[in-house]
Amino acid sequence: METFQQIRELDDEESDEFSREMVYAFFTQAEDTFKSMDGALYNKDLAELSSLGHFLKGSSAALGVRKVQNSCEKIQHYGKLRDEEAGTNLKPEEALKSIGSLLVQVKKEYLAAERLLKKLYTPHTP
Amino acid sequence: MPSTSDFVKKLYKMLEDPLFQSVVSWGPQGDCFVVKDMNEFTKSILPRMFKHSNFASFVRQLNKYDFHKVKNTDDNQFGEHSWTFRHPDFHADRRDALENIKRKVPAQRKAAQAAAQAQAQAQAAVLSALPSLASPPSLLPNNPVHSQSQLQVDQLQLEVHRLREEGDDLRSRIRALERNYESVLVEMVGFQRGMAQQDGLMQNLIAYFLGSESGKLKATNPTSLLNPQSTPSASILPTAPINFPLQSTPPKSQQSALQTQPQTSSPPSTHPNPFVPPIRFFNAISTSGSGSGSGSSGASRGYEPTSVELGRTSLVQMSEISRRMNGWNGGRNPGDAWASGDPSTQQAQTRAQAGPSSNGSGSAITRAEALAKIEEIYRVKMGGHANTRVASAGVSASATANINASASGSQPWSALGQQGQEDPMENYVDGSQQLQSQQAGPSNSLWSGLDLGGMAEDPSAKAMLHEGLQVYTVGHLMPRSMTAEMNTNDSWNFDGAGSNVNAGSMPSQSRTQNQQRFNEAGEVLESRPGNQRDGDTPEEEDEEERVMPSPMVEYSSKPSQSTSPSTSSGGKPSNSGITFPTKGSSVSISTETKGKGNKLRVRRSTFVPGWTVPPRVLLVDDDIVSRKLGSKFLQVFGCTIDVAVDGVGAVNKMNLEKYDLVLMDIVMPKLDGITATSLIRQFDHLTPIISMTSNSKPNEIMTYYSSGMNDILPKPFTQSGLFEMLEKHLMHLKTIQSMSKVPRSIGIPPLSDSQFEQAVTAGAAPFAARTQNHLSSSSSSQPSTSSPQSNTASSPTTAAPPTAAPYSGGPYGSYNGYGDQSSQNQGADDDSRINPLSGMGLTDEQYNMILQNIANGESFMNGMVDSAGASSSASASTGPSAGPSGSSTQPKIGSGISNGTMGMMGVSSMGVGVGMGVGMSRAGEKRGYEEAGLSSSGGRDKRSRFEVVE
């Protein structure tokens, strides 16, 4: 939330246009990314999954959406067949399985964040 | 350990790889391998094969595996930069022998230690054994001894061998270091060159803005000219005043002036030396020109074309003005029987003519112009209504005011600009007042009121000047935006919103650049009028757009300020209302806004680093959130931003544009940041590239650096993190923070202004009184009144330079510097260059700092530091010799040096360009050393170091 606060401070006094724009851009982008992730998961393209995870990690981190960020980081690592927490390497099947469940989880996390953010912005709508 | 070690395997693999054949390959006999191009090897192969890019460590590792460098023979077929390594068991055709290659370190070390311990004893033993060895017959009997000594000999040989190896290693490392050093030097030179170029650009920009400013001044002149002319001819008094304000409404008026009076509009081009603005300017101008042509609404557009025309036409038009004035003199003065008026006008003429002819002091020109303007109005008035001659008194009084203002204003050039703005403004006031008075009939009280109004403007004008000064210290181009902020209603916004403040500050700072870069965009230009009208919009607009409004808003500021006196004195709300319908309320703003201006400034300085030129930053990121956030941060920091969404875009943009900094994401589609950076580095070695990444493990960071990146900004980045990066890598653009302190202390003692004010009021009050008296008494007394007026009017002008001189002692001393040092600074003869000078005084110091930083940081030019320090301080002192810092440093500089550098300094500080001054001065310094063969230790030091390099 801290990160996000910083972004909010960048807004003009009167309008939250900047942060709103950014947040909504994030929504669009994140949803696109999820779609791509689904596709990549379907194709068992681990490298793609990893890079998508990295990508979403970056944007969620920029907004301070921590949970999504962390999950995405895991996806990124799993995509590289690596379990950083356990410090072990994974087999592709394991990785895909983990990513599959993580993807469900991260989507949930994302939806929660989106709801929260949207709620934050709707009252301000002129 | 039967298996072959990884390193050797990799080595073998590398040599087998046909891709690398051009860089590293087996030797001709297959018993050694050759690194043909060390740089290429380090750059491309090492990272791929060995995950690092350190050639020295590669060599070290080779040595650990008992590879030996083969000395280059003269007829080496691979060139003298090739490295050949050999190992007895390392053969192209003997794969099986590879496993004999072992890392020798641990055993070796023990052996070495043992050898070291045993050495003392061994030595003795060997020595004692030698004789026995020497005698073959006694070999067998001495067998035990012999075997022992044999062992020791072996050990010693080993030792010697190892030492030799180490020597090789060291030598190779030294060579690598030398090479690095060389490349650093090259980079430094390139950097300097870049700086010089940049400064040249800066100077052009400054010149351009100066031009536009004086263009404004002159553009307004025509208006005033036009109106007076129209007044007599039209002789419809009521309409005339209305016309006047309408026309004089800065935005429109300018255009109308331009349109109706092309020839008068051309006079603005007073710039004797039309600077050479980048082609972009012309583009921008042409767009804006078309805009101005299209409609009267294009206030700002009108502004730009003016400046363009400015740039193109020059002295000719000045002389035209003077000619016209002559004509007027001839026509009007006799008719009016205003004998005493003639001398003064002629003075003005001569002055005005002298300005162009002298081709010199811009301040003189402006002053002359101001005078001329005043005189014109004055004359016109005379022509229009004999009764209103008294008005001339008021005018001349205000003329003195003008002159004073200009005199005091001439210290910093920004003040000049302001003065330039104010002159027209006051003229406006006078004109409108007089017109009003014409309508109302000449009533004494009215006139006195007007006079007072004129006088009252002085303080406000000075307030403006003060602000201008302050602002100037914050940013060169501040004044405009300040006025803009102050005078439009928008300014209120700034108080409230901190971010607004930032935003607002940016445009002004970045205007130079923006204009340079964004002018081309027609939309920006078009958007300006809208902004102006809407009041609030400018701040909320994008930076670029925001920038533009300021000039024209500035225009509006003039009238609005001028209204306040006119309305108060003349009590003609209708006129003022007509004049500034769009601007609305801004009657008494000028004084109030001061406070705001201050506040604004303070805030800004806390928020935004004062860039001399807004840094151009290329932000490369495929993530829109990061992009937006990054852009916003950068915007807040006063940068101009360009974005690319992937590596390809980044490389293309780098190819097309010049940026001060690149923020590069690593993981991107199409082309990742590392590859993009390597590509960019192939044609651009200088621009700092900072990688933004969330992958910041050490080995990754190594890769980043080896691809040519300068720094790492971990993601998600924070405002402060980004800011630190900017500060670190854009130090050279950051001048104003330090500047703002220096010039202030040196700068203009408040005394001067108050003195001036006093002088002005003292001078003007009697006139007003007198004129009133005269008016009431008889027309015959008018000549007498007018003559003192003219005297006084002229006296301030003449007196102004000397009075102004002391004040302008600081780096600001553009005017002074010009006058006093014109002999030194031959290159700087036009007013467009004067102004940069003042800017240069500041930047020189800043550059001095930077130079020192660089020198210290590199620590290879200790001598240079001194010289650079001396030179740049010299430059600071050269321009404004009265500057305390300058004077204090002068003694330090050897006369030889100062002589050697003075010329350069003069030229550079005056004419060449802001930081270029320093660059040049450095160059001058070097030259000075070399030519004069100065024997200062610094020079020697530096030289010797250079010799080492070469």
TrEMBL record, chain A:
One GO cellular component term: nucleus
GO biological process, one term: phosphorelay signal transduction system
Classification via PROSITE patterns: HPT
InterPro entries according to UniProt: AHP1-5/YPD1, HPT_dom_sf, Sig_transdc_His_kin_Hpt_dom
Residues in the signal sequence: none
Alphabetically ordered keywords of this record: Kinase, Phosphoprotein, Transferase
GO molecular function: histidine phosphotransfer kinase activity; protein histidine kinase binding
Modified residues (Phosphohistidine): 54
Domain HPt: start-end pairs: 15-113
CDD domains the record matches: HPT (cd00088)
SUPFAM superfamilies listed in its UniProt record: Histidine-containing phosphotransfer domain, HPT domain (SSF47226)
The keyword Phosphoprotein appears for this protein: yes
Identification of the protein by name: Histidine kinase, phosphotransfer Hpt
Originating species: Macrolepiota fuliginosa MF-IS2
UniProtKB/TrEMBL annotation, chain B:
Keyword Transcription attached: yes
Domain Response regulatory: 616-730
One Gene Ontology MF term: DNA-binding transcription factor activity
Region annotated Disordered, chain positions: 220-311, 325-364, 405-452, 488-599, 770-840, 867-901, 926-950
Keyword annotations from UniProtKB, A to Z: Coiled coil, DNA-binding, Nucleus, Phosphoprotein, Transcription, Transcription regulation, Two-component regulatory system
Subcellular location: Nucleus
CDD domains, per database record: REC_hyHK_CKI1_RcsC-like
Polar residues bias spans: 220-236, 342-364, 411-421, 430-447, 499-518, 578-592, 890-901
Positions bearing 4-aspartylphosphate: 665
Start-end of Low complexity biased regions: 253-268, 556-577, 776-819, 867-889
Recorded GO CC terms: nucleus
Keyword Repeat: no
Compositionally biased tracts (Basic and acidic residues): 939-950
Protein name, per record: Response regulatory domain-containing protein
Native source species: Macrolepiota fuliginosa MF-IS2
